[in-house]
Amino acid sequence: MRLRNIPRADEIIAESSYVIQDAKTVRGAWKQAFGNDHPIHIEVGMGKGRFITQMAFDHPEINYVGIERYSSVLLRALEKRETMTELQNLFFLCIDARELPEIFAENEVERIYLNFSDPWPKDRHAKRRLPSREFLSRYDKILVPDGTVEFKTDNRGLFDFALEEVEPAGWILKACTFDLHHDGVLSEGNVMTEYEEKFSALGNPIHKMIVCREKNDPAQD
């Protein structure tokens, strides 16, 4: 789907105090940026921001960073953010996800959310898929040792691909469901994105997986 360009989106984002403008300067100092030592959760590809804005509202004890590469999409999230000035635990970034290790230092992030990511259906674009082993390698560089990645989608092909990437990437599948909204455990506390609400209303099952890094057994070292 072609994105509609919104005039002045770049300019508005560049002037917003809710968007970190030179994110590489904050690497290793995100807790100072937030002014506390709360854990940091990030959403990669946040779209219009419904999910992460609601999460920040529901969990003031956690700091959130929403990442979106397209300024015209980020602008919509920013408009939501500006109506919730009471939030003190949410910043946005307009960057490409490939830059994550340049933006966050080792052990700086506790959890990463991937919600309804672009499926990049052509085989030659597999490395661009956010749950690919290439991106899992990037997440590995910024997560705390017991950090997790949570991935939701209605795209069964992309979900199957993500499941196949877990073990070769050296990660472990902690939890998995092919029908989130009928899973009594994984659906607890679930916050829906705009896409999730749309797709589930059409009867599409929502798939979810939670993965973590594989731990080395000290006895085998």
TrEMBL record:
Signal peptide extent: none
Q: What InterPro entries does the annotation carry?
A: SAM-dependent_MTases_sf, tRNA_(Gua-N-7)_MeTrfase_Trmb, tRNA_methyltr_TrmB_bact
Residues that hold S-adenosyl-L-methionine according to the record: 43, 68, 96, 118
Task: Look at the named UniProt entry and state the broad enzyme category this protein falls under.
Answer: transferase
The reply on keyword S-adenosyl-L-methionine is yes
For this UniProt record, the keywords arranged alphabetically read as follows:
Methyltransferase, S-adenosyl-L-methionine, Transferase, tRNA processing
- Which pathway does the protein contribute to? tRNA modification; N(7)-methylguanine-tRNA biosynthesis
TM spans, by residue? none
Where along this sequence does the record place binding of substrate? 122, 154, 193-196
Q: Which reaction does it catalyse?
A: guanosine(46) in tRNA + S-adenosyl-L-methionine = N(7)-methylguanosine(46) in tRNA + S-adenosyl-L-homocysteine
In Pfam terms, one family for this protein is Methyltransf_4
| EC number(s) from the headed UniProt entry | 2.1.1.33
Q: Name one GO cellular component term.
A: tRNA methyltransferase complex
- Which GO-annotated molecular functions does the record name? tRNA (guanine(46)-N7)-methyltransferase activity
Q: HAMAP family per the record?
A: tRNA_methyltr_TrmB
- Cite the PANTHER family for this sequence: 3-DEOXY-D-MANNO-OCTULOSONIC-ACID TRANSFERASE/TRNA GUANINE-N 7 - -METHYLTRANSFERASE, PENTACOTRIPEPTIDE-REPEAT REGION OF PRORP DOMAIN-CONTAINING PROTEIN
Which family does the entry's similarity section mention? Answer: Belongs to the class I-like SAM-binding methyltransferase superfamily. TrmB family.
Q: What does this protein do?
A: Catalyzes the formation of N(7)-methylguanine at position 46 (m7G46) in tRNA.
- Name of the featured protein: tRNA (guanine-N(7)-)-methyltransferase
